[in-house]
Model the fold of this input.
Amino acid sequence: MKRVLIYKRYERFWHWTQAALILLLALTGFEVHGVYHLFGYEQAVLFHRNLAWAFIILIVFTQFWNLTTGEWRQYVPSTKLLKAQIEYYITGIFSHAPHPTRKTVYNKFNPLQRLTYLGLRILILPVVVLSGLLYMYYVYFVSNGVVHDLGPIAYVHVAGAFLLLGFVIGHVYLTTTGHKPLSAIKAMLTGWEEMSDEDAEIALEENLKVALVESRKGISGKGTIEKEGMFEQAFEDVVEKLGISTESTRLREKLLNSNVGYFRINKDGFYEEVNDVWLSLYKCVDKKKVVGSHVTFDRTSEGKEKIMLLVNEVLSGKTISGERVERVCKDGTIGYHTVSAAPYKDENGNIAGLEGFIIDITPQVEAEKALERKIASGHKSDEFYNMMKSSKEVGYYRIGKDGFYQDVNDTYVKLYKYDSKDEIIGKHYSLSRTKEDFEALKKSFERVLKGETIPFGITRRYCEDGSIGYHHITMTPVFADNKIVGVEGFIVDKTDRKLAEKELKESGQV
Amino acid sequence: MKKFFEILLIVIVPWIIIFWIVFTYNGDKDRDFYSEKKIEIKHDSVPVDHSKFAVLQQKFKTPQDMTKACLSCHNGRGKEFMKTPHWLWLQRDTIPGRGIFDLGKRDLMNNFCIGINSNEHLCSMCHAGYGYSDKNFDFHNQNNIDCVVCHDNTGTYHKSNPCLGPDNPKSGLPALGVNLNYVAQHVGAPRKSNCGQCHFTGGGGNNVKHGDLEMGLLHCTRNFDVHMASKGKDAENMRCQDCHKTENHNITGHLYTVASSAHNRATCVECHTDKPHKSKLLNDHFKTVACQTCHIPVYAKGFHTKIIWDWSTATKMDKNGKPIFDKVLHKDTTYTYDGKVYKNVEIQYDSRHGTAVFKKDVKPEYIWFNGTANHHMLRDKIKDTTKVLVLNPLFGSYHDNVDPKDPEHPSKIWPVKVMRGKQPFDPVNRLLIQPYLAGKIKGSGALWADFNWEASFEHGMKYIGLPYSRHYSFLKTETIWPLNHEVSPSDKTLKCTDCHNTHNSRLKNLTGFYLPGRDHSSLLDNSGLIFIILVLLGVSIHGVLRIVSNKKK
Done:
């Protein structure tokens, strides 16, 4: 059993407040309806009105939260696995079939939940709230001749109340279908959901996948990731907590030196100039061989088409940024990078060609593909770990219970800018951290040692050369003989697209 | 521990804050509500001492001499008074949709003593004049005004009651033994007892007619009538004219048994405002509910009032062929009338009147009322003799509030006393019959002398100049008496659930609109209940199956 963080603080506040409000609204509402005597009619009416306003305020706040955090996407209905989910509740659950869907922080709701909650949000709640407001202020509407009879308003309101009550019963019952009967309720209280190891791992994989895609998006500025905005917010939270600026000059310089390649192409599509980083990315040694060659020369057949489209677009006067393209390197391997380019002009102001930067994303794309292959094939976790360990994009670490590094992979070493594993293994993880960072990390570390899984987080690293980097991090406990003996996980570098853009601007091209 | 604090902070603390606000905040508090302290009752300053006036020292031979003496100083008041309904027993009024009429006792019938015509010599013991013995009374002779019936402050002046014996004068003359000089020298503003001697005893006895106007009001506590209370703490001891403001003998206020429009009325908002409660919700009720509805939860608090009068049983004699007078048949029983059971009532029988049913502490009935009324007048034909004829149908409906035809007169729910009865009518001419009732001389045709309907009807109808086919029957009629008095203090008013109640709402007969707490769609409620039961059943079965399948494993 593992525990995975699913619910944010606001969600938990909102959920339990709403739960209490709905129950009390029902309690007072059915008294007003004349079903029983509890508070006394006058008090019941008064409470019902106050509760209604509290409910409306909460709805407004929550919809605002949903919109600004992008959480609204969790309610976008999906028919994918809907049938499977229904079948699971009808038959699978009795034969102990696995849940067809997993709960992750990015995808909290199964398709049935998505549909139900969306229905609640756009159908039942608005109808109940609107009919309630009409009911409450009926005397003013009726004297203006807007409404003629309270009856239909009341009937709609009561019908909504019955539906809501039915929902609450079903909802409470379905909370017992989690890993353990009380898992879901505990999760809603603490934010951490208990899951079987297998489910937790899949949740972890999902989160890692999102982190990878997010990482690439950070460079390219494009990407079609669903959870747009969530990471930025999390990232900014961390940055704010640590009290550093994202515009850090050192960080930008490091990034530029590490993986930004420069190129210039004339209006016929032939290279005029490239820098050393460009050459190394294309695995070329001789610059002269490149200058004068055509831009389509080192492409796959699909790549040729795409690059010409982009070139023509820039030559027509537009600026592009973060377009993902493929390249064929000198040794025949295929690489991936994002390209940002702008036209440059001669003395007469005519477009003479284009120039721009490329940022390599090959390791990330490879890691994504590996992860996707893994998820598609359903391999066991050992293989997954091995695959991830060998990834050029994903850093792997294992730290013992005592806090000393036991293992890291090459990517981890590279991200921390060390020369070899030996420089890290055997050291305490407080290495290369400020005191505050260490304290923050220590808390997470201790939590994981108690059996929790941290499927995502953003943290800061001080590299060997003194530069600062950021990465997504996952932390899972390492088990041996059913005891937690350490912490392991992955890190995915989080670079900033803005830095590359700024460089482009500073070079005077835009 | 940290987790506990987090839950405390995210769930428990917000709960405490939110629900503390929800359960203590009173958004219903009306901050502009009218303060009761603003109501000021001004009593007149000490009046002049009438005993010093020379003109009142003379020995009055007739009451008319006394009136002449009054008018010798109060000149002009006589002409003024002779325009009022207390004198004319008519008042010009508009019946919406029908026109302008002179309405009053002289051309309307009720279902108590039916009508004054041909019986004036008895009825006029409540006429503010002397000698109104028949329809030929001179309404232009100001010396016939009875000033002191209203202005006597000694309590010794009474009008003669001819029923007490043949020696007693008729037609509104003073009772035997009244010292007119003493009375004339001690006059002043009317007291409750002056108004009450007629208005409390109309219909033949204490509280018989109105139900909310009775002798008990003269000495009562706030629980009995919050305005007129003279006993106990905080007794306001208000006089009639404190509400029924009077100028030039024009007394505000009239009852819809003899009036039809909302002019010249005495209303609650003269003193109170249209938002007198501290609660907005209650003040919102003002639009649709009359003050009286909640504040007069019960009437006839002190004495029985007549609620049913069945004339059809009159003229029956006892075994010896002698008439029965005022016999109480049952003190506390039930009476079934027109399919409805009346509990805790007193039944009386009298050969002159038929059967009468009295009740104390009556819960009002409720109607929609917009302040205007129709009347069944003497010459009106009865449209449907199989149905109950309402003699003064009050206009108003819930719909008046939704789409008011006359925004000046929105309909409100009003408490009313409904007087039910059976009274004679002519099925051929489809007219209500005016019987000749009051008379002691055998063979005169008076019902109370001869106990003969035919003679009584013949005489009565001839008197008002209407045809009588010599066929008669008894028609079920109703008169509706809006209640305004015996207002209870705020802690004795109706409670929300008296109306907002599923089973026993006071407004259960007012249909055609949705009343929260009272009305339900049984289809919706049953479907809702079935839905909830199905959900519960579904999750129970599902849960049991899960437990069973878990055990198997």
Summary: The two ends of chain B are 36 Å apart (CA to CA).
